[in-house]
Give the backbone structure.
Amino acid sequence: MPSDDKDQTTWLRDRISYLEKSQRTMLESLESAATGGEFKSSPGIYKEAVDVLQDFAPRIMRLGAFRSVGLWHVDENTSDFTLGCCIPESSRQYILTEFQRLTEEGMISLALTGEKPLTAAGSGTKDRHVIQAMTTASRTRGLFVGSLKTGQSMHDITLPLLMILGQNCASSLEALELYRLLRIKNQDLQDKKEQLELREKKRLHAEMEKEQLQAQLVQSQKLESVGRLTGGIAHDFNNMLQAMNGNIELILKTKPEDHPDVVRLKSVNESINRAAQLVSQLLLFSRKTGYRRELVNLNQEVEGVARILERTIPRMITLELRLDPETWPALGDPVQIEQILLNLSNNAVDAMPDGGILSMETGNVVLDGSFVSAHPGSNAGPHVLLTVTDTGCGMNKETISHIFDPFFTTKEIGKGTGLGLASVYGIVKAHGGYIQCYSETGKGTTFRVYLPSREHERIMAEEQQPESVPIGGDETILIVDDEPEIQELNREAMEDFGYKVICASCGEQALEIYREHGQSIALILMDLNMPGMGGYKCLEKLLELNPAVNVVIVSGNSANAHGKEPSDFGAKAFLSKPYQMKDLAGTVRKVLDIDA
């Protein structure tokens, strides 16, 4: 401190001025540092390393000692330096040139190994540069090169602030990299989560589909079992009806028309015919009845049934038809298809006692593999779709599960047999089709019937066959039937028509008789369901003895109950029980005349 008062005053004033200047510089630097510290709120805001450098460069510039600055970031994979930000932008080429020169002189490498900023001479005589590596504990993240203003040097306070900003910038670069890695990891986890959710969803869907298929399979197996049972019952019942019908026919032949018993006998005969129709419905369900295979115009069948319904259904029910004029022909029996329409329509009418809408719709559909796999019992290919919908009371799930069961009905006693939908099911299955039912309580019911189609074939008119005239003959006929009543009835009837008759009760006995009298037997009238050998096996043995043997099959089942026509087994004709004796005589005579 000077001894002279004047000198002391000057010294003190200069010292105070210096302190004030230093304090002001320090405050400005701190303010600049504080401003520089107002970084973006989250590293997630940064998308690229360039964004970080562009955020820090103005803060470094505001330290006040630089005329230009350049910030590089280091590629994490290649370790290459890339200039991400330059202020001012017009100095970019100068900064790049200086960076290249400093690299060649080893100054960049030296700065990277130091902990503090390094001062280096510029290419000009008065140029000076400050170089600082932006480093974290893990690695070097970037580099700062600042060109000082001419004649300027870094203030004591500026240097640590520059170091702080450099470390913060390096930390932000590292945070960005980590955040990016986390995003990748999170995305991988999210993808795996979505895959697991999708897999679980597919598993649940597969389990649900499996349960549905299992339920459909159980229902199908149940109906198949019931079908076999009803088919057997119907066959036996037809045999009983045949015995009753035949006896009544023979009794009527002995009675004059004015006899008082004739009316009663004819009444019984009508009851037998109604019972035969009931059995026919059972056979339809069990698919043991045959059907004609021809091309059917479904639109015409619907219109024909609609004309019947218009005269019979209550007026408060509206009938709507939506028929596709391009509907393909269905392959099947027009009589049985009409039966489907009538049964579905009658059930729909019964479900709407207070009125509603009954609609019938036709269209074309091609069932693919996915439909078939989801609906056991259906078949792929072109189909005609018949849809019958009502707006009636609907059904619950429990009722729907039984609607195709024989004798199941929700109607009052005396108002339904429970065979309508069962016969519909049988007809559809016999045609190789598929039927679906959708219903909810109070929301009506929809039946969808899929019938196989020949989409490119024309519908030909059916040729009418003349009715055969029952006449007799004098040939020898072998009657094979295990039912004594039917055997005796057929014997008596054939003898009345002039034939000579031999009887057998089983296939084995029939073969013995044919071996002994084969040359004299003109025709064999044979039942199929017999104990022991059975009709089909007996027929096979007869054909071995004589390939030209005349065999007429009679059965309580239909002609193609086993999936084949009678001719496929070698028979000349088929007669379904119960039959009229005149039909039996006509069939026998027709076969014998053809053979002659």
Summary: Residues 303 and 392 are 22 Å apart (CA to CA).
